């Protein structure tokens, strides 16, 4: 698609081209910090973690049953052994087994050193202290060996892994109490525009409530981010420039909404050219074409559109990957699936379109999607009803009922940056 507002109608950047420019421009942060394991969920690992112990630490039983030495088994015949004690989880058997003896044992309990096999309790017959083992008794079964799961000194997790619940469980199981992670990103955001009103003030003609800051606050609610709301900046060029320069000195990333278009009161691109650098401005995405990316001092800058649906879409498709890269996380792509579209969708060729949809799955496992309503970039109600984007490529000129489309579920997008 050509940019009709540009003097020589330069082609707009595609989303992959914009993301590649961002990838080349952004250098991940290097600073790290130590956090307690119970505060580490979702943080990005900065240094590899090695196991301080073997796991399991002792040979232990995988079943409730009886531990015995395989040398007591006489070929394929049934046999009896004398039970001389019990090994409990946390309270190992303290005696020494002789030939012809066994011990009662419970799941997770330490095996006596003289034993190498465990039979399930359901397979034996008990007569006082005499235990009858059946002829099909298997040896070397139901035993968890030392280091079977993790060997001491082995690398458990390597950076830049984002720590998950299973990771936390694994680290706790080997006694790791603290981890070294990337420090949290410092992000400042504010809205621009004379028309904006805080939520605690009544509306007057020509004014609208500022929903964008609440959108950004929610999208930035991540353990890897410290987000600062800098409020509403009116359409005052000098005040906006002063605010941007001040924020750039204290934050890793500055995000604004509004002021990135081509109106007389839209100053973002002009200010960025004056006090920083513009990497790109405008991309072939709908909603959200007027999007600026650049740098002010050491801080990266994103100027998002003013329409609320455009803010959501451009943040998720452009800003979120940049945040993940800056935070040091490995690159990842959002989950996309194929679904049958049961709505007629209108679209003009030229920009990749992210239309709001409602995704369902039928009893046979087939994915179905319908439009959630009017698709204007100011229509938040259809976004609230939606649970996915219907992703239409730039060359698409519409979708008929029954056609296959690509769908991006909100479950991996909305509410979190996923960094």
TrEMBL record:
GO cellular component assignments: cytosol
Gene3D superfamilies reported for this sequence: MoaB/Mog-like domain (3.40.980.10), MoeA, C-terminal, domain IV (2.40.340.10), Molybdopterin biosynthesis moea protein, domain 2 (3.90.105.10), Molybdopterin biosynthesis moea protein, domain 3 (2.170.190.11)
UniProt-recorded name of the protein: Molybdopterin molybdenumtransferase
Provenance organism: Crenothrix polyspora
Assigned keywords, A-Z: Magnesium, Metal-binding, Molybdenum, Molybdenum cofactor biosynthesis, Transferase
Family the entry assigns: Belongs to the MoeA family.
Residues covered by the MoaB/Mog domain: 188-325
UniProt enzyme class: transferase
Function: Catalyzes the insertion of molybdate into adenylated molybdopterin with the concomitant release of AMP.
Lineage: Bacteria, Pseudomonadati, Pseudomonadota, Gammaproteobacteria, Methylococcales
EC number: 2.10.1.1
